[in-house]
Design a protein that fits this description.
Number of domains: 1
Shape: elongated
Strand content: under 5%
Largest sheet: none
Order of helices and strands: HHHHHH
Structural class: mainly alpha
Number of helices: 6
Distance between the termini: 26 Å
Length: 136
Amino acid sequence: MADPASAVLGIITSITALLELLKNVTKFIREIREEDQQKRDLLKEIVATGQVLQELERKAKSPEWENTVRSMNRSDGPLDLLKSALETLKVKLRPGDTPLANFTNRILWYFEKGEYEEILSKIERGKATLSLILDL
């Protein structure tokens, strides 16, 4: 069985890593010149998720949250769900490797059919679960 203190530290580290991933994805989204409702909705959801994660990170450091934090350390939990969605976004939106690809990625906002909705849904579910945990 894992040491409780190291489990809590692992979750805090995971939250910190997710916040860094959120910053990167936010930066990539803002660099895309095209403006549309999808981009605004995704950015709004990511910012709100970041606020929930910051609150969770703050609370996770207090001893009374130890059991709650340990219970979140599941491979199918809300942190993994968010990580999966954000990594998909990062790969999809990161600047290209060549000048032409980089230019194209910065002006175009495109997703394959259903891809945007799936990613947004994962982010919303992860955020909602974490919000429920915070409200308990």
